[in-house]
Design brief:
Helices cover about 40% and strands about 25% of the residues. It contains five helices and seven strands; from the N terminus they run E-H-E-E-E-H-E-H-E-H-H-E.
């Protein structure tokens, strides 16, 4: 259980999940890979162009990827993870559950630590649950961390 994958959405609860996973990795002498999966407007044409910050036309997917990578660096900078902990990060494009399950099937990880939003009832039926799908389909151990969970003592 030394190679831990942690999907994040850059929210405050995601930061708590990352800290939780980092503490597990620290205790086990492991490493953490932080991933953010973004979906680029599934109905937009793949070659759709928008003006970037520099005013030049660029592919929408490139602009979104650059923003996601920048947000990842800001997110990690504010995480205050244990010194010396090996941390890798990346952003991916696609359906979150499918991307995360593919990562788990790649053989690069031993454990997934991810947050849950605790949605239930009608919201759950309408929105679905990435965490629930992953827990059902993962061949690896998954730790789900509810919002406001504290790191292990």
């Amino acid at each position: 259980m030394r190679r831990i994958l942690v999907p994040v959405d850059y929210s405050e609860p995601s930061l708590d999940v990352l800290r939780f996973a980092a503490e597990i990795a620290r205790r086990l002498g492991g490493e953490v890979t932080v991933v953010h999966v973004w979906e680029c407007m599934p109905h937009a044409p793949p070659d759709l162009k928008v003006k970037g910050r520099d005013g030049k036309l660029r592919k929408l997917s490139d602009v979104i990827r650059e923003n996601a990578e920048s947000e990842m660096q800001q997110f990690l900078a504010g995480a205050k993870l244990p010194a010396g902990l090996p941390v890798k990060s990346r952003v991916e494009s696609g359906d979150a559950a499918k991307c995360i399950l593919a990562d788990l099937d790649s053989g690069q990880f031993d454990l997934l630590v991810m947050g849950t939003h605790g949605r239930g009832g009608v919201k759950h039926l309408v929105l679905g649950s990435v965490a629930e799908k992953i827990v059902r389909e993962s061949k690896l151990p998954v730790i789900t961390v509810p919002a406001r969970a504290e790191p292990p003592p």
